[in-house]
Amino acid sequence: MNKALIIIDVQRDFCEGGVLPARRTGSLIKPLNKAIAWSVEHSVACIFTRDWHPPDHCSFTSQGGNWPPHCVQGTSGAEFAKGLNIPDSTLVIDIEKDSNKASMSYSAFENTNLEHELRSLDVIDVAASGIATEYCVAATVLDALRYGFKVSVLTDLIRPIDVKSGDSNTALAEMKAAGATLLTSKEWLNSSIVRLGRHENFHNNVEIRLLSIEKAIADYHLLAQRHKAKFQDKIDEHTVLFLKGLGNDIAFLSCFKELFFNSRELLDILLTKLNKVTDSSKFQTSKKFLVFAREMMRGKYDGSNLAIIKFLKTNIMYIFQIRKVRNEIKNNPSNIDIRYVNKLEAVFEVPINNDEKELVQYLDIENKDEAVKKGYYNCTYFLDEIFPQMPLFWRTCLSILDDDIKALTTGRP
Ligand SMILES: [Zn+2]
């Protein structure tokens, strides 16, 4: 966990129809909900703050303050804005702010446990959204920077009150000068994408590119350490490969590659053994693998009644897929997007060769006919999922093969 989306004071009283409405709140909820849903899906914490005043709060005009009474504890005006989606997730945290009658604080950090919550989730990177730009958003952003967080302000997901026109622009300039990054929610959602290899726009974004690679590696380090702790006592060669060489972006790519190339060795062992069982040639080339896979899927080996055939038939498309992914990593690394959003994903367009067309129908992908027509399909690979599963998969393969080969050579069923 290292990112959080802070949704500041998106409450009825601050929306159109409320007693202290910000501007253009009607267009806020939909895109905000989208960012919230994305965040939960990608394990980004969502911090919902609420202005939560006692009825005689010092900021109210009745008490000599500047504001009409608003967001009074327990009243409908203090409720979240209509249509705002509060997901049911352990990553959703509700913060009540400014609930002390005598003190006035715009910042969500003041007199709350927000900092503690963020630290306990290992958050280092926060994005601010909500109401109102020049008051609670600005104060929260400036405090977050003071506490050492990396802060983004999502310019399309904040709304100003602008008592004096231009107030919010002044506040935005102040946030930027203090070190906050101003960007749109779309840019923020995409900010965890690291593109490996050289691209046409490579030079335009060198700094951003380096920063995001650096961040992805730092995140990856953290994750690897956590995995390592979990698997410390049963660490195997795959785990070692996976954890090895995480120091820089070159090692990052090469450890990625090694994971797959190591699997190819295992695949070759498996297929060599398989050749003996199925009486095919001594060396399993890529073309022969395809022939074998096609024949297996068509049912050629069904009569042999070996557990291995049944097992392999189930898993051969997985093997096929891994081979293709591995080829892409080897041959076209610059076509691969590495995304890190608490999970390491590799996103590719995988080409379909003529001799593979028949096999594609067995793949678990969308729009197979269209993919065959286009000559490629989109593939997302979760490396963090492969990490614990790959060794288990191969070990199971090999142990089943060993049993079958024993059965075959001793003549027992
Ligand atoms: Zn207030």
How would you characterize this protein structure?
The protein is built from 13 helices and 10 strands. With 413 residues, it is an alpha/beta fold. The chain has 2 domains: 189 residues, Rossmann fold; 203 residues, no CATH class. The strands form 2 sheets. The chain has a 6-stranded parallel β-sheet with strand order 3-2-1-4-5-6, with helices on both faces. The structure holds zinc ion (ZN). Zinc ion (ZN) binds next to loops. Zinc ion binds next to loops.
Keywords:
413 residues; alpha/beta; Rossmann fold; 2 domains; 6-stranded parallel beta sheet; 4-stranded antiparallel beta sheet; 13 helices; binds zinc ion
List the helices and strands and how they pair.
Blueprint lengths: L2 E6 L20 H13 L3 E7 L40 E6 L16 H7 L4 E7 L1 H14 L3 E10 L7 H11 L3 E3 L1 H5 L3 E3 L10 H26 L5 H7 L5 H30 L7 H13 L8 H25 L5 E4 L3 E8 L5 H4 L7 H7 L1 E7 H28 L3
The chain binds zinc ion (ZN).
Shape: elongated
Strand content: 5-15%
Assembly classification: single chain
Mean pLDDT equals: 73
Helix content: 40-55%
List the helices and strands in order.
EHEEHEHEHEHEHHHHHEEHHEH
Bound molecules: zinc ion
The description of the largest β-sheet is: 6 strands, parallel
Radius of gyration: 28 Å
Total helical segments: 13
Reading side by side through the largest sheet, how are the strands ordered?
Answer: 3-2-1-4-5-6
Q: What separation lies between the terminal Cα atoms? A: 51 Å
Counted up, domains total 2
List low-confidence stretches: 193-214, 234-267, 277-285, 385-398
Report the count of strand segments: 10
Task: Kindly name the structural category.
Answer: alpha/beta
